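Revision sheet: structure tokens.
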Amino acid sequence: LAVLIIALVLYLIIRDKDRTNYELPDIRRISVSDISEIEISGPIGDIYIKKKGYKWLIGPKGFPADENKLKEMFDVIEKPVITAMISESKSYDRYGLEKDKKISVRAVSGGMSVREFEIGSTTSDRRQTFIKIGGDYRVYQCLDNIREVFEKKMDELRDKVVLSFDIKEIKGITIEKGAESINLNLVEEKQKEAASQDKTAEQREKTFWRYPDGT
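Predicted:
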């Protein structure tokens, strides 16, 4: 009895209370530059994104994609950050991973799938998201609200810029209304600053807009 008591006391003292009895999946990082297609399907619709040359195009009509909006998706696809294993029960309803609620993501490179995962609901604090990786039946917790990143309509991801230019290249503006028009020209003049005790005189460029009458 004494030996048993000593053994139990030692077990309670030396046991690792924070020990994790499972291993998280080892997810290799993939490069976005290697990906040629991305397929996203979910409750609000399906999105097909394909790379053509250096541009990403959306849908069957090949609308240009806003790559700034795709960047968050790319970050997750490259390497989802898994923080914990949540369930092995194969009961997915409570995690938003049932068929009509989950978001499925598939990245393709050279005709082969290189990354697949299913996104469920977020945790109560919305800082993490339930996720299934590839063919793994277990439910994991992924860092950040990645559901918000992928739950987009096709129209939200389109690049709607019709014309863009560097504002520094503009040298003149014409404004017309009916028979009236105003012309503005950009003027750069060099002005000489007066010398002071601590500073010698120097030339500075001043830029301003001028009306045709000189004002």
